[in-house]
Specification:
Elements lengths: L23 H8 L6 E4 L6 H8 L3 E5 L3 H6 L1 H6 L4 E4 L6 H4 L5 E7 L4 H5 L24 H7 L2 H12 L4 H10 L6 H12 L11 H11 L2 H15 E11 L2 H14 L33 H6 L7 E6 L16 H4 L2
Parallel strand pairs: 1-2, 1-4, 2-3, 4-5
Antiparallel strand pairs: 5-6
Helix pairs in contact: 8-9, 8-11, 9-10, 12-13
Length: 335
């Protein structure tokens, strides 16, 4: 496959450039788009992966739960001449819109987009003041709803589990004492005061907490687990699953899913202990080696520094049956 240049992002109102697709060439090598194939873009964003697949002749069904991103992509849909269908829905619902075994590739670009991070109205960033929202979509409780009603213990658990914040209890106590909170600047100031952060520090003290609260508000790990299961259902035999993650918990979730679905277990056995029934047949081949951005890509796009691509081919085995929540593995529960 010839090298692909990152597609020029569509300009939003005001003309500023938007999200730059990360690991574009590596993802396209992994999913191998070709004329007529069905490519599912699970996280449309600014459409970088979708446009690259369209340029290779593929048909695309794309998902984005942000109605503003979907509205901004109207020109992309029109320009595709019927080969791009963009749905305003979470990617966990892809099996409701794509038939079982119909897709030949599914790609995920996880986390928050640059457009959401840079637009204060989303309330995602501590770098500019905005409403304490943090939702990727338009439904459900906001970050303010969570922080103003949850117990100190619940807030601390979220900060520790999703942000891996060692001072989770201290921050949670400070947030409860500072209620009500309604702005991102307020939230960041409370966190910084509670940690005694210094100006000019390499990493803002609010980084981990903002990340954890955003991931909780959007149920990002739970959504990822459900989305991976949905991708398993819609992929045809030989189809390819590619996932770009930016957070260690996301990457661990993807790694654990592919390990389980490719039949890898400690000791090399696919059988449960104590004479229990064997696990279903592997639905994916052994995953390819993970890939990270090159020095050249990092120079062009510093936000790519934590990105990791994992991908694997689908086998002909049927999808694994769903498990009840209490029996689901850790990656499925978003833990």
């Amino acid at each position: 496959m010839t090298a692909l240049r990152p597609p020029a992002p569509s300009p939003p109102p005001g003309g500023a450039l938007r999200h730059v697709p990360v690991l574009l060439e590596a993802v396209m090598r992994a999913v191998a788009p070709r004329p007529g194939m069905l490519f599912v873009d699970a996280t449309y964003g600014a459409g970088g992966y979708a446009r690259a697949a369209l340029a290779a002749g593929a048909r695309v069904i794309a998902f984005d739960r942000d109605p503003r991103a979907v509205a901004a992509a109207a020109a992309d849909v029109a320009a595709a001449g019927g080969r791009l269908q963009l749905l305003c829905a979470p990617f966990s619902t892809m099996a409701d819109h794509v038939g079982e075994g119909e897709a030949e590739a599914v790609a995920f670009d996880l986390g928050v987009s640059s457009m959401q991070l840079d637009d204060p109205s989303y309330g995602m960033s501590f770098r500019s003041d905005g409403p304490l929202d943090m939702r990727m979509g338009a439904a459900g409780p906001t970050a303010a709803d969570f922080l103003n009603t949850a117990s100190e213990a619940e807030i601390a658990e979220v900060l520790l589990r999703l942000g891996e914040e060692p001072a989770a209890r201290r921050i949670a106590r400070a947030l409860v004492e500072a209620r009500p909170l309604s702005r991102t600047a307020e939230l960041a100031a409370v966190i910084r005061r509670s940690l005694g952060g210094r100006r000019g520090a390499r990493r803002d003290p609010a980084t981990r907490s903002f990340q954890a609260i955003r991931m909780h508000v959007n149920d990002e790990l739970g959504e990822l687990g459900r989305g991976l299961e949905a991708a398993e259902r819609v992929l045809a035999a030989g189809g390819r699953l590619a996932v770009v993650s930016f957070h260690s918990l996301e990457d661990r979730t993807v790694k654990a899913f592919l390990a389980a679905r490719s039949g890898r277990r400690p000791g090399g056995s696919r059988h449960r202990p104590d004479g229990a029934a064997p696990l279903p047949a592997p639905t994916f081949e052994r995953p390819a080696r993970p890939e990270r951005p090159t020095a050249g890509e990092l120079a062009r796009n510093p936000r790519a520094r934590s990105a990791v691509l994992r991908w694997a081919r689908r086998t002909a085995a049927p999808p694994w049956p769903p498990q009840p929540p209490e029996a689901a593995p850790a990656w499925r529960r978003g833990r």
